[in-house]
Sequence to fold (108 residues):
Amino acid sequence: MLTTQFDGATVNTQANVYFDGKCVSHGITLADGSKKSVGVILPATLTFNTGAPEIMECVAGSCEYKLPGSDTWVKSGAGERFSVPGNTRFEIRVADGGEPYHYICHFG
Fold:
């Protein structure tokens, strides 16, 4: 099921800009105290470090990702999710000329 909105959320209005603008996100906090970020990744191949485990949910576009310990790129499109372990790193790539990858990161 595709997440389309969050009710009762506090949004950090200043954007987090990473990788020379190839990734831009905003942090949000829900009424229950859980934290998420919503953002977009432009065409690029990027490596992210995690603290807590994360669930990446695609809301538009698509990406390929490679999890730690794997050499395989896996495609993820709108309505799909993938889990990333905490205290590790993973890669995401968005194809040149493709639609940006719009995502929600659920921290967990």
Q: What stands out?
A: The first strand starts at residue 10 and ends at 11.
